[in-house]
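User: Predict the complex with flavin-adenine dinucleotide.
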Amino acid sequence: MKTIIVIGNGMVGYKFCEKFVKKTSKENFKVIVFGEEPRPAYDRVHLSAFFKNSDAKALELAPINWYSDNAIELISNQRITDIHRATKTITTVSDKEYSYDYLVLATGSSAFVPPIKGTEKKGVFVYRTIEDLEGMLSYADEIKKKNPNAKAAILGGGLLGLEAGKAVMDMGLEPHIVEFAPKLMPRQLDMRSSQVLQLKLESMGLNIHLSKATNQILGNGSITGMEFGEDDVLDVEMLVISAGIRPRDELAKTCDLEMGVRGGIVVNNKMQTSDPTIFAIGEVALYNQMIYGLVAPGYEMAEVAVDQILGDTTIMSADIDMSTKLKLIGVDVASFGDPFMPASKGHSILFEDKTKSLYKRINVSHDGKKLLGGILVGDASDYNMLHQIFLNGMAIPENPEELILGSRGEGGSSFGSAMDLPDSAQICSCENVTKGDICNPILEGECSSYEDIVSCTKAATGCGGCKPMVVDLVNETLKSLGKEVKETICEHLDYSRQELYGIIKIKQLKNYNEVLDACGKGDGCEICKPLVASIFASLYNDTANKEDVIQDSNDKFLANIQRNGTYSVVPRIPGGEITPEKLIVIGEVGKKYNLYTKITGGQRIDLFGAELNDLPAIWKELIDAGFESGHAYGKSLRTVKSCVGSTWCRYGMDESISFAIELEDRYKGLRSPHKLKGGVSGCIRECAEARGKDFGVIAVEGGWNLYVAGNGGATPKHALLLAEQIDNETCIKYLDRFLMYYIRTAAPLMRTAAWLDKLEGGIEQLKKIVVEDSLNLATELETEMQFLVDAYECEWKQAIESEETKKRFKHFANSDDRDDNLVFVPMREQNMPKHWEN
Amino acid sequence: MEAILEKYKSIAEGDVSVWFKVTTVDEFPEDGGLCIKYKDKQIAVFNFTRKNKWYACQNVCPHKMEMVLSRGMLGDSEGIPKIACPMHKKTFSLETGENLNGDLDAIATYPVKIKDGFVFVGFEE
Ligand code: SRM
Ligand SMILES: Cc1cc2nc3c(=O)[nH]c(=O)nc-3n(C[C@H](O)[C@H](O)[C@H](O)COP(=O)(O)OP(=O)(O)OC[C@H]3O[C@@H](n4cnc5c(N)ncnc54)[C@H](O)[C@@H]3O)c2cc1C
Ligand code: SF4
Ligand code: FES
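Assistant: Here is the predicted structure with flavin-adenine dinucleotide placed in the model:
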């Protein structure tokens, strides 16, 4: 067995692991990865997204257990300090030694900090890691508190600098971009396009300072300004340096690997350094005497290194494509191929319209047959196509200007669809996926959706720039096969949820096998079974006790399954109102069964850690005391949150508690495509957060305002106004219609907000249907809802009253023993499950 | 943790030396499963009525080592009978034990036979 050590767990180091896992059975190799950063590799390209949500997890390239699941040992937070080539060992910062057979250096680069006096001052940042961003965020908060009009500068007007400028602006600081060169994005743009871009950026609120050499950074401890010439000073309280990168090649010096004059570890086209057992990839590698600060070449290098180690002959392409499209900043900028091309190589065609902030340039060979490069500012929608034409050396129109002007002067572009590209056209450059890789699996029937293609080719998972083209290719190919582009449920049921809902309703199918026999194939699965169960529930209000074997994990045992296989118990507490007597019952049940108790975010109480065997007894005690199931496990109504309203509150305009209880009681047990939550507030101060719910009611002068389709969760959305100043009865009528229409037409696991997003015509259309009854459906929807309301039964009451159902709640069929695998550990004054080991 | 998995090794019908009598057929839900205890082992037994077949496997899911597979959902993937774990829906072939939607270790499977209305699971000792 050979040991491969990878130093650096950044984007390229991770890609090496991923390609490695794909290509080899792991038995022959042991892979150990060292990363200096505290967390596993993340998506640096989309680092700026962190400013929006501070969600580091969302940026992870793979969760931490991916490494162990694939037998890769990841040691984070551990810098390597030395390489000893003679003994083939490396040393970590904590002085541990490891031996290797192959060594892969993927140490990336660090931000280049120019030698200007004062860069060590507080408030000066670079833009490279999550920690950098965290630092910037908290510093920005601090200075904004003292000075709401604080300014911040970015040193460097390149690709990254502009991105940082936008980020700083979004943080609420006045942004200033300071660039040494006389133009923006000097590597990608010519003078005229830079001017167009500058005007556009200034109109968006970014201040641009060109041809500025910074002499020193002013301030006593913390930065207060930048000095350019003698009297030329810019007052700023924060500075982000984005002046280029420097390869992190310090390890090469510890072991005498060949290096470039201006840094970088020299590699050949096999990615080998001057020592053939040591490879260098990504931004630390000097290939063709260049450092490539982009992910796509880094990913190709990772692939070459993997293949070389495994004995294949793959080598790095001779020419590296440096085309780029600026992302995020709210104005399109792209350049491809050779953007500047001298007159000796061809001629350029330019189009400029400063009033519309538009600039387009293409460079065409002297014979007028080939596209050599170009620049797009203001509208880069043709970038993907032009880039493809350039990359694939495709023929261009006789009048090349049509490529940027369209064939009839305006509008219509002169090239056809993505389908015209050759099969070898590289669509996703990050993952090196060609058009053929995307279209062929569809033509051969191996893939049948965008998701399939993404999961089997990884296209569009890098910078994401190619996504529109991938979507087009998938849809066009499906259409060419005569396939309608639609989402089907799974291999057993070739319908959408809405179609299946219709079939089951018309044919009055009543159990799962009938459905499969009538319109499906095979024996079902974990996708279609719960979906059919939810349709039955919506049509007949069947509780989850009927056909428990097709119910989703939680529904099957009428409780949420926990980390260790125990369950949680949530009794319904309508509107959050509860008597002291009932609180005592909950307390006593918790004590008796040794349950962890917590007040939930939904104004009620959750009891965690109940063993399967105990569930019926626990529920019997609760039901005897007058409780019902809270359906915390179901895709059904959860809670209707209330505020105290006019009952107690000095501002209350109406009885919000009473109305919340009435609504919760009406819709309890209502099963739907996803969970449903409601809220009722007594006035516009909105203490019940009603607008964060699927339906929200707020008391106003003259009645209630009804809002629909909001949610919290991963993608928060405020609910939208459906009707104003209505009385209780009208409110319930509209709610019946709205909820029933949603239940009938939504896709599985689609909350109301996402559903409304997709509804053609949006909220205006919904108003027509619900309020004006434009589809003539109102009576039908109300009748269906009334049927469901009348059919309500507490499913826990059903469960404990039937000996047959109670049998489900035993851990062993042949013994009354409990699960002996359960381990609880103490947590403050209660118990929690022992943590998972992997 | 690995110690738990050590206990579970697939057994071929031919190698069975003990047919352990579990309980009656009608205790089992149709197209569903139950967990049974044999010595210190937990075994999930499934009545795949739609296929008219019975299957048995270890109850512990190799993903997070919880004793939950018997509470999962039966189904098939291109004809291969499978069980989906209730925790994170990892699926395993009930014939070979192979993890069908990931690269977890295979689970151990055991032979089942039905005689005179009783369910028997086969073990080596
Ligand atoms: C217990 C509770 C957290 C707490 O300790 O407070 C909770 C716990 C869970 N939430 Fe929640 N959510 C709880 C309030 C919320 C809230 C706040 C609220 O309701 O006001 C939200 C945001 C509001 C919203 O839903 O719009 C919330 C948004 C989610 C989401 C994201 C939904 C979305 O559309 O993005 C999920 C995931 C899902 O449902 O797919 C989720 C899923 C879960 C699950 C069910 C995960 C699971 O499947 O096991 C957790 C079950 C815990 C258990 O075992 O009982 N939980 N969850 C809260 C129970 C409320 C209750 O009384 O029923
Ligand atoms: C804000 C931002 C936006 C970007 N946008 C784009 C874009 O739109 N398109 C594009 O193509 N590229 C973009 N890039 C560039 C892209 O992120 C890099 O090309 C890519 O991350 C390089 O990968 P790498 O693995 O070589 O280096 P890195 O991702 O930097 O990873 C190197 C890792 O090695 C670690 N390391 C270094 N030395 C040691 C040591 N001695 N021991 C242990 N660990 C060590 C470092 O801590 C680091 O985690 C962007 C970069 C930034 C910062
Ligand atoms: S936010 Fe909700 S789903 Fe997430 S961990 Fe907390 S309780 Fe669980
Ligand atoms: S524990 Fe079984 S899938 Fe996670």
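The first helix of chain A runs from residue 11 to 23.
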